[in-house]
């Protein structure tokens, strides 16, 4: 009798240990699934943050352009006037022919960039009916500046001025916008970078911190930054400015 009782007690104890072990394994597997799901969520957050940062940096670039265009046109006008004056000084004036009463035709005045952009905006309003006015105007600015860069007026004055602005002002503003957006979305600045320009697009890589849910020592202390990168919309005119393809800047 005692032997039977002892055997039953041992079996009950073994079953209890087995059940406890099985429950522990199930908890660990459940925590593993939770941690994997959490990592996927954090990756999505990192993707969203990098995308918003790239969009913010691109928007900042476009915000800088209206004031720059006015300044450029003033400089171009002065350059062309000086060039014309130098040409007139170097060439002797043609003598007037007596009896020639035919008045020279008045040269057609060139439209300003602002006028061209306004015309292009109105034209695109029909083609891009589903877009916001700001998006349409940005597209118009992009197209007109790309054409102007191709003209190379003033010995490539526009390319020179844009390159200078990127070097000393615009990149700084774009970095600040991307950095602020990352922080506002709860992202991490450690290891974050901004690349200009990848096929005319601003690329931002940033991360969010993922912490594991621990149980009984399993997964304890596991923390990692999960990185994702995203591109902003294509900016056509920057592809015509040499030397700016693929430059990378730290956002830390």
From TrEMBL:
<feature type="compositionally biased region" description="Acidic residues">
    <location>
        <begin position="83"/>
        <end position="104"/>
    </location>
</feature>
<keyword id="KW-0472">Membrane</keyword>
<feature type="transmembrane region" description="Helical">
    <location>
        <begin position="15"/>
        <end position="42"/>
    </location>
</feature>
<feature type="domain" description="Putative Flp pilus-assembly TadG-like N-terminal">
    <location>
        <begin position="13"/>
        <end position="57"/>
    </location>
</feature>
<dbReference type="InterPro" id="IPR028087">
    <property type="entry name" value="Tad_N"/>
</dbReference>
<feature type="region of interest" description="Disordered">
    <location>
        <begin position="83"/>
        <end position="113"/>
    </location>
</feature>
<protein>
    <submittedName>
        <fullName>Pilus assembly protein TadG-related protein</fullName>
    </submittedName>
</protein>
<dbReference type="Pfam" id="PF13400">
    <property type="entry name" value="Tad"/>
</dbReference>
<keyword id="KW-0812">Transmembrane</keyword>
<keyword id="KW-1133">Transmembrane helix</keyword>
């Amino acid at each position: 009798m005692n032997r039977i009782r002892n055997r039953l007690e041992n079996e009950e104890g073994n079953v209890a240990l087995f059940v406890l072990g099985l429950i522990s394994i199930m908890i660990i597997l459940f925590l593993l699934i939770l941690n994997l799901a959490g990592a996927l969520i954090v990756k999505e957050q990192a993707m969203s943050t990098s995308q918003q940062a790239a969009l913010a940096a691109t928007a900042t670039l476009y915000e800088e352009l209206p004031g720059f265009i006015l300044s450029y046109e003033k400089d171009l006008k002065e350059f062309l006037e000086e060039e014309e004056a130098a040409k007139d000084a170097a060439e002797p004036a043609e003598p007037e022919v007596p009896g020639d009463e035919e008045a020279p035709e008045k040269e057609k005045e060139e439209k300003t960039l602002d006028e061209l952009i306004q015309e292009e905006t109105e034209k695109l309003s029909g083609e891009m009916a589903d877009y916001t006015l700001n998006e349409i105007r940005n597209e118009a600015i992009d197209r007109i500046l790309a054409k102007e860069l191709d003209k190379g007026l003033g010995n490539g004055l526009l390319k020179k001025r844009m390159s200078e602005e990127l070097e000393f002002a615009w990149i700084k503003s774009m970095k600040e916008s991307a950095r602020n957006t990352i922080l506002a979305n709860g992202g991490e600045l450690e290891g974050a970078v901004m690349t200009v320009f990848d096929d005319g697009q601003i690329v931002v890589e940033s991360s969010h911190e993922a912490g594991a849910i621990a149980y009984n020592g399993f997964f304890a202390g596991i923390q990692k930054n999960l990185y994702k990168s995203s591109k902003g919309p294509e900016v056509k005119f920057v592809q015509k400015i040499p030397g700016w393809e693929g430059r990378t800047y730290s956002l830390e």
